[in-house]
Please model this.
Amino acid sequence: MNKQEIENIKQKALEEHIPIIMDDTLDVIAKYLKEIEPKRILEIGTAVGYSAINFVNELEEDVYVKTIERNDKRYEEAIKNINSIGYSKFIDVVHADATEYLPNLNEDNSYDVVFIDAAKGQYLKFLENGIRLAKDGAIIIADNVLFKGRVLSDYNEHKHRTAVNRLRSYLEIINSDKRLKSTVMNIGDGIAVSVIKK
Model:
């Protein structure tokens, strides 16, 4: 696998200010992937396909990733990037709004890892669908749960208030839901890892 090609995708995304997974976050997720060796990953929020490509690369192409992206331009960019790397047989990019697509996805108990990295205000909806779609013992990883430090501070400005409050609720729920055993790490922009015990 050409590391340079992945690096090029990363640099282009950064230049265009497209939010992609941070290096230290990716390092943590890579450790989990190596440990779990998932066969099926569900990703909510594709952006330009950078994280999905990294997951396949990390697992030496022995995985299937379904990833959902609603933004037209990013969806097209992701398809282009995934094709250019030769990963289209491992990654299925769905062009849809995950809040509408997931409730109708009839794949209960079929994913080993669910990765949430999309609209911050919708994380609770994604969580409930993720639990349903994941196998017992699977993990749900949510990125950006600390939202630039705002979630754990007394942040209450109008601009991001809804997203911040919903992320606070997300953290409360993953720590109180009996089906989940969760760890929140102050790495990157905050990662929450929840092991599912159905």
About this structure: The helical segments are 3-15, 23-36, 50-58, 72-85, 98-101, 123-133, 161-176. The radius of gyration is 16 Å. The mean pLDDT is 95.
